[in-house]
Amino acid sequence: MPRTAAAEPGVRRPAVAGIFYPADPARLAATVDRLLGEAPPGTRDGRRPKAIVAPHAGYVYSGAVAAAAWAAARAAAPASPLARVVIAGPAHFVALRGACVPA
């Protein structure tokens, strides 16, 4: 299995690279490009989505669905670039109350 790229300071190393998505950065980029290229074009009415719900399972299981969800943002971006993206997800391995956010 190829090694993952070294993490930048303050960036968490990938925990499941090579398991749920390719560990090799070039192969990962090619996979994401392919999934986004195969996604439906999204909305063409010029409206930007208020929210996107996209799965985050292994790419083999949900990559096409996640890419289709993000196609709506991609379709709206040229006319109205996104100013902020907030990603919320579960804490898979640690029980917590509230939210865990970076400093």
Task: Give a brief description.
The protein is mostly helical and 103 residues long. The protein has helices spanning 25-38, 59-76.
Describe this structure as you would to a colleague.
By secondary structure, the chain is mainly α. Helix content is 31%, strand content 0%. The chain has 2 helices and no strands. The mean pLDDT is 81.
| Form type | globular
Approximately how much helix is present in the residues?
25-40%
Oligomer: single chain
Low-confidence stretches: none
Query: What is the residue-mean pLDDT, rounded to a whole number?
Result: 81
SSE succession: HH
In total, the number of strands is 0
Whole-angstrom Rg: 16 Å
Helices, by number, come to: 2
Structural class: mainly alpha
Q: Which features does this protein show?
A:
103 residues; mainly alpha; 2 helices; 31% helix; 0% strand
Q: Topology of this protein?
A:
Layout: H1 25-38, H2 59-76
Helix pairs in contact: 1-2
